[in-house]
Every structure is written in structure tokens, then in C-alpha cells.
Amino acid sequence: MPGFVNSSAVRSSKTMHQIVVVGSIALDSIETPQGKRENALGGSSTYFSLSSSHYVKTCLVGVAGTDFPQSALDLLKKHHIDLEGLDIKEGKTFRWGVRYKNNMNKRDTLYTELNVFENFQPSLPLSYRNSPFLFLGNIHPNLQLQVLNQMNNKPLVALDTMNLWIDISRDSLYNVISKVDILFINEDEIRQLNHTSNVFEAARKTLQHGPKLLIVKRGENGAILFNKETLFIIPAYPVENVVDPTGAGDSFAGGFMGYLATKNPENLTLNDYKMAMVHGTVMASFLVEAFSIERLLTLTPEEITQRVDSFLTMICVN
Amino acid sequence: MPGFVNSSAVRSSKTMHQIVVVGSIALDSIETPQGKRENALGGSSTYFSLSSSHYVKTCLVGVAGTDFPQSALDLLKKHHIDLEGLDIKEGKTFRWGVRYKNNMNKRDTLYTELNVFENFQPSLPLSYRNSPFLFLGNIHPNLQLQVLNQMNNKPLVALDTMNLWIDISRDSLYNVISKVDILFINEDEIRQLNHTSNVFEAARKTLQHGPKLLIVKRGENGAILFNKETLFIIPAYPVENVVDPTGAGDSFAGGFMGYLATKNPENLTLNDYKMAMVHGTVMASFLVEAFSIERLLTLTPEEITQRVDSFLTMICVN
């Protein structure tokens, strides 16, 4: 079993430093200018957990079908991922097909078969309900709220969403956003959510709805962290040969939350959040170097630490 | 006369810290979604000098027509700009008309009247020929070389160019590039110059042609500094209300070179270049807040220092 990244945090107990993540589990068909994969392990919670599990134990809540391969289960377990919250239902796993255009900025969804994911009713094992960190991956806002309400404590909660929920469940989305600490959202979505093309205006409006922090994801242009007082702008790590961008946003969130979860959630500083942005960026940069989750499987703590250090010299002034 | 930005540099003499800039001087007609200006002061050397002159004395080499307003000459003089190298020729000043589309990323050139600029033959006054810093603004590469050859010493030389010269004078451009220290070029141009869509590959190839440093300008996505060993990525300063992006690249170069010129050119470190990127970014951010050169006229050293400090907290991790 691979070791954790050493972030100079004191791990007082295993329970203290663990994350619960809820989201999709999928088998993807991916085609990019660099090649293709069939039945590749995918889904937001998979990408997130294989990223965050490099930092802390990660507890996965999701649903898969009876066609979900045993090898995938073994692989997740091997990578510090607790599967007590994984429900295996009679039927097929969520399947998604995608084809990327030449510059990787545009993609066509070839098909979306929800299968067992269509009636997903997330239920948290008792052992998950005191976790100090919770990530609500991109699922219906009502389900995100349902998970949040199952927690016994008040964890540090981050939420991701997508244009679909802004379109069809705006009120439910605003409701759950008002109860979380951190919102991950991409640049187009935050414009859509606030009916404005101006990202700064959109960020201000969104922060009024409750979250303490907002992370606007900008793909190859990096990300911006906003709170009510300030902002932190980070570029993407320069990857010369992007093989497959699928899951970059979830791996970013996994690195971000994974790094935070090595700290005491009561004492997080702005600089901790900035370093979490760095770790998120680095994890996303590794992810896109290979298809599906492949690069996250071979990644070592030393490689992560080395890239973090190298990235810091690329963005910081002494 | 406004004061200089204090960059904690020791100014041993006025001659020590001065820049020579050669480039266009124009009267622009500008239309953006925010309004319009007729006969506005423009041109690469104007934007550059009004930016660099916030740091050091700037010696301008250029040509204008007899229609060039006395008020513009007075304004340049008032801002530490030495006009001994400005040639006033019988005829009309270079005129350029531009209209920006809604998102400011696209623009239509309405007209280009070269006028006296067509036969520009730059000639450096003797008092300019020992300057330690030289900026070769975007003119024909043969003219850039002609200016370089007029220098008595070996100054630190930076060069800017454009797609036109890559198209029609590639060999001349490579020749002059091989003799300079720093090349400013935008993302599309460096791809065009190297026949590759990959900016990193293009950067490596370009550095093999001679320049020690390469600065790839990426508009609203900031800029990247490359040398043979490393790179430094800087985002644009977040300007909420861009009024007119004309001249942003030249103001960036002006802030970059202006900051460097407060230092000893023999002892420049990577961190000095990083700070120069910060100053360039900040000067470009002020410039785009108003039409033409207007914002550079009211700018104070305190405003520059304050924005530099605030920007550093937006991009750096402690």
C-alpha cells in the first residue's frame, strides 16, 4: 500500500484525518487525440478519492452495478480508500462515453447511461458520520443535502456542481450552497449561476449565498480562490503532453481537500488554503498525463512533493 | 513632475539608470464597448515610455509628423521622457483605427496610415548610446538591428515583434533575435514562429536561437517567463472593468524593463526578473483601466507600490 504525502501535519488519529466523499462511480469510454480506453474506471468520487487518498484515508459513498470489476474494487482498497459506503446494486454501473477534439478544450459526450446511478440514495455508514471533512461531489443538490444531514458533527464541507443542476434545480442548489464552507465551480458555471459574464461580480454574489470560500476552476488557465476579502490566483501546472483531461476537476478537488485534511480543520489559515490550491493543481497535472485514473495509481509521495516544490518556484517571488 | 517608483535600488547616477526605447508613435482612433477616443496618443514607444518612465528616465527614439500636438510633447516631457531622439518630420503622424468586440479579446483594425512612420530611419543621439538598457519595440527587424548597432556599449537588450515580421522577414527577425537578451512575444506569435501549437516546445526552440530570456504574453491569462532551466508563470492582475486594452503589451514591457533598469544590469537575478514580471503585470493592469495612455498620466508611485504588494499576496504562498 502506498504511503501518504508528508505535509508536516501531525496526524493525531486516523479518524481525525479522514475525508468522506460522495459522487458518481462510472465505467468510461474515452477517446482523445492520444488514444482511447474502454471501460475505464471513472466518476467524480473515483477521481476525487484516488487523488485525496494520497494524503489521508478516504471514505467513498457511491453506487456501482454488479458488472463493476473486482479488480477495480481491489485497486481502490489498495489505495487507502474505505469502501464500506459503496453500494453494489443489481444492474449495470453508470457508463459514459466521451470524445475530445484536437486541442482538448472541447469534447463531445457520446452517451450517458445512468443505470444504477439513476436511483442513487446515498447512505453513510455510521463509521463515516464523524469525519471532519466531507466532499459533496457533483450529484443532485437534494442528494448532497441528504448526505450533509446524515453527518453527526459539523464537518468542513466542500461541494462541486455542474450546469445541469443550475438549469433544473437552482433553488435546491442555492439551499445546499448556503450550508457549505467551500464551493468548487467552473468559470462558465459561475457566470451562468449569477447571470453575468463578469467572474468577479459573480464571485461576490455567490459568496453572499453562504460559502466562506469559492474556488473557480478555469481549466488550462488554472483556478482562483475567493473569499470575501481577497483572492488567490493560481495557473495550471505546465503539462507539455496532455493525454486525457477527464477528471481533472475532481482530482484538483481531491488534492485540495486531501491536503487540508492533513491539518486541523479548526485552525486553517489562508496560507493553508493557498497550499491546498497548489496541491490540487499538482494532482490535476499528474492526472492528465495518462488515461483515466492510471497516473494516480503509480504516483509516489516523493513525486508529489517534488512537483509541489518545483511548482512553487514557478509561481512565487521571494 | 511625478516621482519615480522606489524599488529599493541604489541610483548611482542618472545615466546609469536610463532606458532607450525605439518604436512607433501614433495618433489612434479607438472604439471599445466602453466608449471611444479620436486622435488619442498611441504607438508602442509611447505606451512603453509612459510606463517605464514611472521607474527611470526614458529616452524615446521615434518619428512623428508636423500634426503631432504640442500638448502631447509637453505631456511626454513632463513624465521623465527625453525627446532628443524624437524626429518631427514634414507630414502626418502614423494613424491607426481600431474597434474592439464585446469581450475585448477580438478587435478589427479599421485603418492603418503609416505616413511619416513608413520611412522611419531611427538614429540615436550620442547621449543615448551608452544607456545600459535598450528596448527595441515592434518595428522591422532590420531597423531594430540598425538601432542595436548604434549603441557604444553592450546594453541589456529586449525586443518585441509581431506576426507581420514573422510572415515577411523571418530571417532578419532570427538574426536580430540572436543578438538580444530578452524576447517579448505573444502566444500565437511564438507558435507561428516555430510552426508548432505547443508553447513549451516553441519556447525551447526559440531559446536555442540566442535570447537568454523569453517572455510569452498571454493577454488576460498573464505571461510566462522562460529561460533554459526554468519558467515563471504569472496571471494577469484581475481588472474588473477593462476600458481599453490597447497598448497593454507595451505597458507590460515598460513596467518590466523600467523595474529592471532600477537595478544593476550586471547583477540581475531570477528573482529580479520575477519582480519585473510583477511590475509589468501591474503597469498593464493600470493601463487598461482607461482609454489610450490616460491612466498612466495620473498614476502615482504609491498606487504602483500598493498594487504590487496586493498582487504579490494574490499569487504567492508564504
Explain what the structure shows:
The structure is a homodimer of 318-residue chains. Residues 9-15 of chain A have low confidence and may be disordered. Helix content of chain A is 34%, strand content 24%. Chain A has a single domain, classed as UDP-N-acetylmuramoyl-L-alanine:D-glutamate ligase (3-Layer(aba) Sandwich). In chain A, helix 9 crosses helix 11 (301-315). In chain A, a hairpin with a 6-residue loop joins strand 7 (94-100) and strand 8. Chain A has helices at 44-52, 70-78, 141-149, 163-168, 170-177, 187-194, 199-207, 248-260, 270-287, 294-298, 301-315, and strands at 18-22, 26-32, 35-42, 57-65, 81-82, 86-89, 94-100, 107-113, 133-136, 156-160, 182-186, 213-217, 223-226, 231-234. In chain A, strands 1, 4, 5, 6, 9, 10, 11, 12, 13 and 14 form a ten-stranded mixed β-sheet that branches. A four-stranded mixed β-sheet of chain A has the order 3-2-7-8. The first copy, chain A, is globular. With 318 residues, chain A is of the alpha/beta class.
What is the CATH C level class of chain A, in words?
Alpha Beta
Judging from the principal axes of the Cα atoms, what is the shape of chain A? globular
Ranges of chain A with pLDDT <50 over ≥5 residues? Answer: 9-15
Oligomer: homodimer
Main beta sheet of chain A: 10 strands, mixed
- By CATH, the superfamily of chain A comes out as Ribokinase
Arithmetic mean pLDDT of chain A: 93
Which pair has the most extensive contact?
A-B, 27 and 27 residues
Proportion in β-strands of chain A: 15-25%
Helix coverage percent of residues of chain A?
25-40%
Number of helices of chain A: 11
